[in-house]
Here is the input.
Amino acid sequence: FRCVANGRQAALLAPTGVLAAQHTKNVLQRMGEESGFDYNIAVLRGGMGKNTKAGRQLREEIASGKVDLVVGTHALLSKGLQFKDLGLLVVDEEQRFGVKQKERLKLICNGVDVLTLTATPIPRTLQMSLSGIRDTSTIRSPPPMRKPTLSIVQEYNEDVVKHAIELELQRGGQCYYVVPRIAQLDEAEAMISKLFPDGDVRVIQAHGRMARGAAEENVASFAEGNYDILLATTVIENGVDIPSVNTILIQNAQAFGMSTLYQLRGRVGRSSLQGFAYFLHKEEAITEQSAMRLQAMADLHELGSGFDVANRDLEIRGAGSLLGTEQSGMAAKVGFDLYMRMLKKSIRQLRGLDLPMVPRTNVLLPDGEGSIEVSAGPDDTDNAFKIPKSYIPDHEERLKEEGAARLAESTTQLVDLTNLWKETYGPLPSSLQSKLKTLHLHACTRQLGIDLVGLDDMGDGQLDCVLRSPGLRLRHWANICKSLPRGVPTKGLDVVFPARFSVTREEFEIKGGKKINLEALAARSNFGDDDDEEWDALDQEEVEAMKEISSAVNVKNLEEVDLEQYPRFVIKNLGAVKIGSRVDILLKALLPASKVVYENQQSDKEKARVAAELREKREMMKKVKKENDAVARRRLGSLD
Here is the structure.
């Protein structure tokens, strides 16, 4: 909603038509004509190719910016689709998409925020999150009144099937019966008819090869209570939410992947009633990996255990290739813990400026100077960034531009935005220029990982400005200084590292404006060599840093924080500077370093984009060569 409200487009990608239809229904209720917001919502699904009239028309509307939010299936990944100004892409059920499809997403989403949603990430994705390549957050709180689904793993037996179905029907519920292949559906229906010969049990099928819309119609009819058992393949894995169904039987469970088993189990227990999941397997078909998968499903049955299931899958199958197309691999050959440690070391050695991005900086200077906080009550001062009505009279346009300014990631983006305002609305009023300086300051602090800013009494009436940066490390500052003019830190900006970061166990300071000896500093740092215990300590440090960043917004006074325990920037005697000029001094001190970080990040993004394009070209060349070789072989065969 925020993305569209700020004037950019958004896209929601789902793996199946059933799930896309469900998302479209929810989005229309919340953002469409029925909601009062009246945003233009569109659906792009299979059968709407660029050669069809409907597909052509919709693609033109997306390219022109007429469509605010598009919900779609794999058609969103097609090469002929162009967005005018895509700001956010949400990928639901990420585990259902292959690596090549995700590489295509990288090309589409250059400069676009991407949010991927999954209950059970594939090993490759999970490993990228655990190793720090991708950020991740976990929602473990279930909806109220939900109970963990009981998981029963045992050998297939018709008596078990009959007992499970009878138990559910006796309490007025419905059942899913899932088989791995479409060819097994009729055989399973015949078996159920034999178990219930009186014809009291009504059965309906749903699978992916039915006529267009037929599967959705059958599922809808089942949801209305017209049938007792839905006999299906994994087509019901996503997008099916029927609270009256609280028993699922999965035949030949050894043939399913762990993610699929977890998703199928999640189809039941979606009400306050107890859910049951039967994983029925053939003893003679069990392999070592399938036995481990089924054991995991029996062990991990608590609500919100999807992340634990994915971790177990990562241990069983391995992590896959980060740069190739394999989504699982054999990390077990070296051991999972050792593999993850080796990977983290390599990533840190390659990424010199992996400063944690701070979503919001809490500025605690006197009189609200430098703050952009919204007032919490009638007695609080409202420091939120607002554009004067006299500058942009239109209310909706003004809100959109305010949002764009607040979301700017760098001072470069803010400069580009204000230049656009000057062309559109005229010269900036002085009051707006002052507020924009504050936004520039916050863009710098976020780039440098600064979560807390305030004045600290050093005694004798001297008030130094302390800017806490919990994730700052010596390697970060060393790399930044290398790119500054003459390789010298900015004058007036000192950096202090706590005693625990030094082999001498003493706090050490890097003075601004003076040439630094990187080798000498590296010798003082206790995070410089390859000792495993020290790398593990560094991991823990970074975990703690992220916790501090997330809690900084709740700090009301610097006295609440033990500043000596954290890396921090210091600007001496800022308290002596007259009110109204402190933001200027802070901005002058932080701007050079923040620009280095931003330019480095942009360079990394560009390298990644070029690498992705090269990979796609290589794949295309291989495909063309393979097709040409096949044609040549056929020609030679016809000549013979």
User: Anything to note?
Assistant: Residues 78 and 104 are 9 Å apart (CA to CA). The two ends are 64 Å apart (CA to CA). The longest strand covers residues 86-92. The chain has a mean pLDDT of 79.
